[in-house]
Serine kinase of HPr protein (Carbohydrate metabolism regulator)
Amino acid sequence: MSRALQAGCVSIGGRGVLIFGPSGVGKSSLALAMIDRGAMLVGDDGVMIEVRAGQVFAAPHPNIIGKLEVRNLGLLEFPVSASVPVALAVQLDREAPRFIEAAEALEIDGVVLPQVRLWPDSPVLALRAELALSRYGLTIS
């Protein structure tokens, strides 16, 4: 059974990256920057989550499918990915540690996902998120 989750999500190479953070921190801007680098939108500020075979899947929310809020421009239409297995959670956090030894753990509906906190005010935030996916993201089979 799926449920709504307040988070953004993009798909990179068939692996989902959930994006969390407080209002106004830059979740949609990160998604937009990642899309510019080749990711595909799953959802902006709302996705549907479902656990299947011990894996978390994110899918577009039916009420906002294909829409991404671009600050100062409004809600714009983007191509959207279908359901994607989630490999990493990114928490945008101005108190994020400078160095980490390992990803933190985030539990969603009984499934543990790796989570990395990233400082949101970086001009290379999308690159950092992609590197976190490469280094700490789950391998999807």
Notes: Residues 125-136 form the longest helix (12 residues). The chain has two helices and eleven strands.
